[in-house]
Amino acid sequence: MSQTPPEPRPGSAFTWNEDWLATAVGLALISLVLVGAIPEWLVP
């Protein structure tokens, strides 16, 4: 991970970094598997 802090954006209290993006993608994939939209074997 980088040692430099992310640049603050004016008016934004929450910044999306790689960890939050990976969490969101993982939750979306789990949700799609549970709903049955994609087969379970497709997600590693």
Using brief descriptors, characterize the structure shown:
transmembrane, 44 residues, mainly alpha, elongated
Can you characterise this structure?
With 44 residues, the protein is mainly alpha-helical. The chain has one helix and no strands. It has one helix spanning 18-35. The chain starts with 17 loop residues before the first helix and ends in a 9-residue tail after the last helix. Keywords: Membrane, Transmembrane, Transmembrane helix.
Q: Secondary-structure blueprint of this entry?
A:
Blueprint: H1 18-35
Transmembrane segments: 20-43
Keywords: Membrane, Transmembrane, Transmembrane helix
TL;DR of this structure?
The chain is mainly α and about 45 residues long. The protein contains one helix and no strands.
Structural class: mainly alpha
**What is the mean predicted local confidence, pLDDT?**
80
Largest sheet: none
Proportion of residues in β-strands? under 5%
Task: Give the termini distance in whole angstroms.
Answer: 24 Å
Question: Count of DSSP helices?
Answer: 1
Fraction of helical residues: 40-55%
Radius of gyration, Cα only, in angstroms? 15 Å
Shape: elongated
Low-confidence stretches: none
The run of helices and strands is H
Q: Number of DSSP strands?
A: 0
Keywords: Membrane, Transmembrane, Transmembrane helix
